Amino acid sequence: MEKFVIQGGNRLEGTVRISGAKNSVVAILPAVLLSDGVCHIENVPNISDVSVTLKILYELGAKVRKINQSTFEIDPTNVNSYTISKEMSSRMRASTYFIGAMLGRFNKALVAPPGGCNFGVRPIDQHIKGFKALGARVVIDNEMLSAKATKLIGAPIYLDMASVGATINVMLAAVKAEGLTIIENAAREPHIVDLANFLNSMGADIMGAGTDVIKIHGVSQLKGVNYSIIPDQIEAGTYMAAVCATGGNIVIDNVIPKHLESITKKIVEIGAEVELYDESMRIVMNTKPKACKVKTMYHPKFPTDMQPQITALLSLADGTSSVTESVWASRFQYTDQLVAMGADICVEGNTAIVKGVKELVGTSVSATDLRAGAALIIAGLAAKGTTEISNIGYIDRGYEDVVEKITALGGNIKRVSE
Ligand code: EPU
Known about the structure:
Layout: E1 2-7, E2 12-17, H1 22-31, E3 39-42, H2 48-60, E4 63-68, E5 71-75, E6 83-84, H3 86-89, H4 97-106, E7 108-111, H5 125-133, E8 137-141, E9 144-148, E10 156-158, H6 164-174, E11 180-184, H7 190-201, E12 205-207, E13 213-217, E14 226-228, H8 233-246, E15 248-253, H9 261-270, E16 273-276, E17 280-285, E18 293-295, H10 307-314, E19 320-324, H11 335-340, E20 344-348, E21 351-355, E22 364-366, H12 370-382, E23 386-390, H13 393-396, H14 402-408, E24 412-417
Parallel strand pairs: 2-15, 3-14, 6-7, 10-11, 18-19, 22-23
Antiparallel strand pairs: 1-23, 1-24, 3-5, 4-5, 7-9, 8-9, 11-13, 12-13, 15-17, 16-17, 19-21, 20-21
Helix pairs in contact: 1-2, 1-4, 1-7, 4-6, 5-6, 8-9, 8-10, 8-12, 10-12
């Protein structure tokens, strides 16, 4: 078992380069199954969710070749299996995307229900509603979800909530279905647009991605392409929050500033100076953070995947902040760990009341999920003394080279074997 050991107190200075987006790549890699040719996927982050996705592709029969550090060649032409075991699917929430992709390719899929970060019930009823609307019969039996259709036929689908996963899964299943599919109340996150761009570059006919109505005219064939994954907006946001907590002056490179608008507005309110360039941004923080109100919502509003990191930052603010979670039923488990470091946080329903404290003090804490882990790193970097973070497998799911990147910024973090 490994853990991170952080000596807090260093200001962050320098440049950090952002990797490819986790939540894009875990959708785009399964989408390769829909291609009739070889795909080269670039800007693939070296994170464990990618390793699991590539392993699933390999086990299904795809040829997977690493071209360089961040480019993979995937040849799905010989894939003939449509089954994913519990052993694989339980390791990652996004394994559900193989249901849509395999339905789109074979008109059938057999997948064990997914794993992933644990923050309350994570239903997939909207995904199933979409598959059924397209003509699939969906049965859950012996802990396996089976979806089968004689033929998928495009249909109007209204999602009860703007679910990222359901939007992606319906896009994957509908792209080769016969006729027109219209997804209403679709999610608008940047990774939805990235997936649509990837599929369109292969020959799909998808319009409206990035708005709440997506129209998909089914096509019979998709060709192999070269495609580069967009930068990870949440990884960028995490470094923005980190420098605001420690103080400092950093350039965050390889970002799409538009994707970061809601986060940028919040850190400016908290006291940071931000300079935006075409594909990078400079964040300067020379004051104590100011308290503010944060409410998570679907894109383009403040993302739930930044909620723990901003809470860690606000635990050091001047005054009392409130952080309201509106996407997930339960995403505040990690606050106990911040409290162990001296934070003053009280969770009432879906709101955390965060009374800023003068300082956090390092201690032994445990990551309860991916973004919770990121929040503990931020707290550790800003805290007095030594913070030890266990359960770091969660952090490795979504942050490439986190130790190397923080070290290059002057933070003191080490990965050690327990
Ligand atoms: N929901 C349903 N039924 C469904 C689907 C979703 O009730 O069929 C509910 C969920 O319970 C939740 C809300 O709808 O309350 C939103 O869920 P959504 O489907 O949008 O989430 P997801 O697709 O499972 C993705 C990201 C999460 C991120 C959410 C929200 C991936 C692989 N995961 O999850 O990312 O929090 O969207 O933006 O894209 C992370 O990166 O740390 C992470 C957890």
